[in-house]
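Quick question, first post here. What does this chain look like in 3D?
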Amino acid sequence: MPAYVSSTVEPPWFARPAARAWTCPPAPAGVRDFHASLSGYAATPLPELPSLAVELGVGRVFVKDESCRLGLPAFKALGASWAVHRALAARDARGDATGPVTLVSATDGNHGRAVARTARLLGHRARIFVPRGVHPEAVAAIVAEGAEVSRVTGAYDEAVGRAAAAAAEPGAFLVQDTAWPGYERIPGWIVEGYSTLCAEIDEQLAAAGAGTPGLIAIPMGVGSLAHAVVTHYRSRPAGPPTALLSVEPTAAPCVIESLICGEPVSVTTGETIMAGLNCGTPSSIAWPHLRDGLDAAIAIPDAASARAVGDLARLGISSGPCGAASLAGLRAALIGDGADERRAALGLGPASTVVLLSTEGAAANPATTTADI
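> Answer (accepted):
Ran it through. Tokens below.
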């Protein structure tokens, strides 16, 4: 039986320790080699932060710093580049390659810019739908990539619907990082693209003598990155299992609410500085992996993320509110009332190694300023 505290209790929390025994097939081979062939590819840093290990009562803490990934200030280029590569190869194989196409997507910022950058580098067009709440500087960065930007007055889910409709036009196809019944192949390729990040972590921890991580904290939007992380760590044939913790804004807790309900649900989202996590519905292809492979989920308020942004900056890590959510979520899990129970559910001890995924740099989301911290 899963053990959880309902979302009416602070912090909103769900735990399923049996997840560490669940297994799944691995991501396909060849993704890392594809990324390594791209101009500007390099593994992003994994610095160790001993002061956080002391604060959190664990052995070692590392932060996967995605503030510069293939020239962009977030990890999203990994998924967009691989998915577009696969989609264009499939088009060529069908024999209907007739010239440039228009890549269409909805975004809270980072994914749309990655799609636009990929389109520009390959000589294609891009049309990006942006919901309310995305900072004007993030929108301007997408425009600077040469994309046509369409503003949507509604939330992220509405922007996705508008993008899907636009992609039905001739010469266009949708490159969306969420899936629903009938639209799953390209989101699946995006998930595969994120596997490179996990492969880098394995190599970097081995080089640091840290071995297998005891826990990875993952910022959660629709669940595509978490899907990739679950796939990577639940497909290992041997070795100690890794606990996986997802972190969402309290303004958009679609995954934790789905976990509590035992089925995917949509939530009405509010305003949050964690713009890239402001999603109301889990991805359909991610959901089975999240349901069965996540050890725990937690939701955090904006103030906790803003504090983590500042703390990481003082430790030399450029992180936006979405990236810093991983630190804020782990703090909420391991400190305060009920922390002993949550720590036990995660299987953490004083010698555990923890990895925080900082999925974006400060430049990706300028909404947080020092005044907010």
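Residues 1-7, 368-373 have pLDDT under 50 and may be disordered.
Residues 77-94 form the longest helix (18 residues).
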